[in-house]
Description:
Elements: E1 9-15, H1 19-38, E2 48-51, E3 71-75, H2 76-84, H3 88-92, E4 96-98, E5 100-105, E6 111-115, E7 125-129, H4 130-143, E8 147-150, E9 154-161, E10 164-171, E11 174-185, H5 192-197, E12 201-217, E13 224-230, E14 233-243, E15 246-256, H6 257-265, H7 268-279, E16 286-289, E17 293-302, E18 306-307, E19 310-312, E20 318-319, H8 327-347, H9 355-383, H10 388-403, H11 405-415
Parallel strand pairs: 1-2, 1-11, 2-8, 5-13, 11-19
Antiparallel strand pairs: 3-7, 4-7, 5-6, 9-10, 10-11, 12-15, 12-16, 12-17, 13-14, 14-15, 17-20, 18-19
Helix pairs in contact: 1-4, 1-8, 2-8, 8-9, 10-11
Bound molecules: flavin-adenine dinucleotide (FAD).
Flavin-adenine dinucleotide is lined by residues 15-21, 51-54, 64-66, 70, 72-73, 154-155, 186-189, 193, 210, 212, 252, 295, 314-315, 322, 325-329, 331.
Amino acid sequence: MQISQIASHYDVVVVGGGMVGASFACALDYSLNSKTHGQNCQQREISILVVEAFKLSSEQTDFQPSFDARTTALSYGSSNIFQSFGLWQSCADTVTEISEIHVSDRGHFGRTQLSCQQLQMDALGFVIENRTLGRVLNQAMASAAGIGLLSPAKVKSIKPRPQGMELELDIGSTCQIVQAGLVVLADGGKSPICQQLGIVNTVERYQQSAIISNIAFSKPHNNTAYERFTDSGPLAVLPLAKQNGENRGALVWTVPEGEAKSLLEKDDGQLLALLQQMFGFRLGRISRIGERFCYPLILSTAKEQVRPGLVLLGNVAHTLHPVAGQGMNLALRDIDTLVRILSQAHSENKSLGSISVLQQYLNQQSKDQSNTINFTHYMTRLFSSNQLGLVWARKFGLFSIDLVPALKQKFARQAMGLADR
Ligand SMILES: Cc1cc2nc3c(=O)[nH]c(=O)nc-3n(C[C@H](O)[C@H](O)[C@H](O)COP(=O)(O)OP(=O)(O)OC[C@H]3O[C@@H](n4cnc5c(N)ncnc54)[C@H](O)[C@@H]3O)c2cc1C
């Protein structure tokens, strides 16, 4: 709930109430606090403070960068994680199911198709608009008695102290000092706090940008997500619910950095013609394109994710290329593991900020993190090149995936966020 009085100490302070910070706070509160309520157990509730620089609103009329015009493809595994924290029910009515994934390579033969029937699953994943996810998370945080919400407010600095961390908060015209047993840093990919703390990032620029927009087309999508690799970069169309009788999809179009500006400046007719040429006619005629937004694409990984009293989550820990839709899905698996380890530590009366507890989290998640980062990185490299060797490699790759059921299962498990689970 929104607070006006700030306590001097919290067990956990979450810096950033974006997609990852808000999901973590709800998951931790659900696991540690709502269970202690219901079972009349001896365990003490923990105090959680979420500090968000932008105004959080369950109406979502105000701008917040995490919950902007994008859509997110959530894996089947991610829906299970949201379910286990009591949040999926609120999302379920607004998501569009993905029952088939169609992967193709423009101008080449290779292609593969994955369906939930082949894999004997209810769905391969779900598409949710970021604004909708924002509304669900903000409502959940606002109604959770165990979460204190401070927004708009900014964390200016974090300093290590013998019993945890000290945070300096900038609340409009005043500054306030707060102590925390554990700080969860979820302030996104451009974190000045990380720099202040001397946490170094390894950054690889793809020299690509993602243009995102909603599009309308003449044929129904039949809940298929399309991933099409072109010589200039991958292009994805995710299925969205019909609106005013129009078939709709969410476009993520990766283009070379130098071309993004001129593409954004084209009028709708010119852009639609080019898009049609790149995507083909699988969805019939692409008739309309909405407002366009552009994101520079990088791979960034923090060299340290845990310190005594500190853990990094989400984009600040690892920012991935959106080609395979893995950034938020990986962050949710990180959250799931971290919350389980913190719950265990709490039940054993261990300090939540203890480095041995946080290191246990990192040890459990590091394989999943490196597999997901490598899968995304090499897919980006392989499918963004027109070098002859790489063209043959991907033709062969897609062909083999389609022919060999075990490979298809492996590819699907990674793409659905179920690998390593
Ligand atoms: C085009 C595109 C498409 C994508 N599609 C997918 C997809 O389909 N599937 C998927 O899994 N992932 C996808 N991703 C990745 C996903 O969007 C990210 O993983 C996710 O947004 C990371 O969220 P975050 O909360 O870590 O960071 P952010 O979204 O950047 O949020 C950080 C928050 O911290 C706040 N903040 C910053 N500094 C401070 C401070 N000092 N004090 C207080 N608050 C602060 C900010 O205001 C913000 O609200 C996509 C990414 C892009 C760019």
